[in-house]
Structures are given as C-alpha cells and as structure tokens.
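Sequence only, no structure available. Ideas?
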Amino acid sequence: MPVQTEETKITAKEAKKKKKELKKKEKETSLRIILDNLRYEGNNQFDEGNFKKAISLYTTAIGKSGPNNPILLDCRAAAFLEDGQYRLAFNDTMKSLDLEKSNSKATLRFLKCAVILGKIVDGKEKLKLPDITKKSRQEFEEKFKRIETYHKEILKLINKEKYEKAEGLIEKVRKVCFKSAEFLMLFAVNHALQGDLVRAESLLEELDTKDSNAKCSWYYFLIGIINYHKNELVRSITGFSEAKKEIPKAERWHEKVSLMHSNFQHAVKLIKSKTYNEAIAMLSGALKVGSDNRPFKLKVYKERSAAYLKIKEHNLALKDLTVALSIEDKDSKLWLMRGDTYRELGDLHKCLEDYREAEELTPSLKVHMKIKEVERELKQQELHKNSYYNILGVPTNVDQQTLKQEFYKKAKMFHPDKHTDAPEKEKKQMENKMKDITRAYAVLSDEQKRQDYDYKLACMEDSEDEDEYESDDDFGFSPEEFFYFVRMFHMTGGVGFW
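Reply:
I predicted one. Tokens follow.
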C-alpha cells in the first residue's frame, strides 16, 4: 500500500477544490444561458407587443438571478411602462438606477414615470444625474415646475372653497399626471367638499391600494369627509386625525367633528339622566356646528324633539319633527311621533294624516288602533259641532232660561228681515242658519224631546256607523213649525216671544 506524503495530500485537496470551482462555473454558465434565453424570449415578446408575456419572462429571470440585476430590472421596467403599469415601472427603474446610475434610457424612463405618477420630488432628484442631455433636463424641469405650480394653486383654491375653479385645474393637470394618487385624491376631495359623495367614492375606488404612497394625507382627509357626510363621526375623526399632520384644513375639520360628536354624546347622557333642558341646549349647539350634515341634523332633531316632548313643549317638538321629516320622509317612527304630537295639541285631522303615513310605511296593529281611536274622536267632534247645543252656543247642561236668551240672540242675528238688502246667496245662507237655530231650540226647549235627543246623541258618539245620524223628523220638527217660529218672531220683534 503506497504511503501518502504531505505533498500527495495537498495535490488531492487542490484537485477537490478545482472540481468544486469547475462545478460552480458550469452552474453559472448554465444559469447565464437560462437567463440569456429568458431575456431573449422576453425581448422578442416585447417587440411583438406581448408585454404581459415579456413581464412574466423577465420576472422569472429576476427570480433566478436575484433582485439586484440592473439589466433585467431595466427590461422589465420597459415592459411595465408599455403595459401601463407605471408604478411598477417606476419601482423597477429606481432599483435599476440605484444599481447602475449611468443609464440614460433608464433615467428618461424614470422621469417619464415620475411625471405620470406625480412624483415630482423623486423626479427632480434624478434630474441631477449626469447622463441625460441638456434638452431632456430642461424639458422635464419645465414639466415639474408647471405641475408644482398647479399643485400649489389647487390647494389655494380648495382652501378658499373655490371648488369649481379647483376642479378645472385638477382636470387639466390630471391629463399629464393621470396616474397620480395625490391628484386623484385632490379630485375626490374637491367633489366630497361639494357634497358629491357618489363621485368622490367612485374616484376613491380608482386608487391603487398597492401603491405605498396611495394613502397620503389627502386620502385620510377624503376618508374624513366621506364618513362625516355619512354621519360616521368616529371614523371621520380618525381620518382627520391622520390628515391634520400635513393638511392645516384637516385640523379645523377635526375640531368641528370632535365637537359635534362630544356634544351629541353628552346630550344623550343628559337625556338619560332626565336633565332635559341642558340636553336641549347641548343639542342646539351641536346643530349650529353640524348645520351642513343632513344625517347628523336628522339625528339631533329626533333627539331634541323627544326631549321637548318630555318637558311638554309640544309646539317646539312639532317644529323639530317637521324639519326631521323634510330630511327623511320614509321614517315611520317620525310620522308616528309627529302624529302623537298633533294629537296632544288637539289637531286630530293632521294627527290622522301622520298616522296613516306611518301605517303605509310600516303597517302595525299599534298604529292601526291609533287610527281607529282618532277617527272616533273626529266623529265625536263632528257630532258636537253639528249638535243643537253647539248651534245655539250653549253647554249640554244649559237651563231653560239661558237657552231662551241664547236663542233670542241668535234669532235676532240671523233673522231674514235683518238681511233684506243682502245678495240672494247670502239670504239663502241666513235662512238656512235661522232654520238650524229654530230647529235646535224647538227640540231643546221641549223636555221630552231634549231627553230623547240627549240619549240618541250619546248613542251616536259610541257608534261606529257613520250613517246613524238622526233626521229632524225624529224630534217632530216640521217645516210648518219653522215658519211659525219666524212669523211669531217677526210679529213680536222678539219681545215676549217666549
């Protein structure tokens, strides 16, 4: 067996090392071939306009080579740009330039993306690179300067609440910076501040949420505005809290919404503790602050009307409920509350109208029973209005002497001889009125007829049938009797008539 010397040991070690290095080189060569093939195929797809396929091939190559390959990053950035994926093109180009600063094509691509995305600060920074021509540098300097000017002017117009002018300027700048998250948010904010929440939310949906710069201060400001108008005050406060770090206008909004929220919550606590006057004052203050917030006003008017009802201020409660219904007329509870309030105030006709509105929106046994009760009350009112007692203007317990005196007063007032010069229509009215007065007296002055009349009147009040009204014949009053009363009144001049 041969003896291993020190020299043979070293030779074996070196051979092993060389073999390892050779394997490594073979692997690198194989990888380079794979990468070249992927890049070559990617370039072919790019040239044919198949940008998504090209992106896929470049991405596979980057995955195999590692994230720090400036050539592949540059290739993929070009494909992203052509495919309209400007944010990804911007990110790849930035990495490529960080790895290899001297690349004029990559620099121009970066500047183009910076304009489209509205990333002016990043774009101006890359203008310092020496590998771009004087003409290109001047061109982009002018673009960035113009965009900055527009940005400042837009902010001024929004702060001055000149929203229409701001909108025109935003639309103009968005033709250039058409993928700018900040200008998109400014556009949405401008619509939200004008109360156009539908448009604002649709613009918000266009936002690329994967963009790390998407959730800028204006994004949080927009969240604050949208939730404010939805009366989601806690979420609104959170949005303005983030936005106010960079946007002075958000500070004022934050104070406003916080005050509205705290006033309302405190008022609710006061109502629960039955401190109604303090609660009303607190709610009135909240209304002044949130006068431009319809759902908030609705909520406050409902709470304040309830507080007014607790202290029997029915007229003030009625005003609040009427305003609340002008904001939201599909709330059956509001119609029911106002109906109850009208009932307390004695306006049964309006009460009935509101109860019927409530029943139409939300049918229920409770509301149906209320409607029936008010219909009965109205019927009783109508009966009383047309009763003989009411015609003569006397109470139901009137004595005969007072009855006679009141009849004389009425008869003297409406006697046909008092209206001989009146138009025929008025004469006819006076004659009918005199007939009513005479008929009423004829019945009430007769003890038996009065007793029968009182009994039947009580029965009619309790009856559900509206056709049970009694005729004059039930009490033995005839046309002949009427003319007899008139003739005697005329002959005596009313003196000693009874």
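Residues 272 and 279 are 10 Å apart (CA to CA).
Hope that gets you unstuck.
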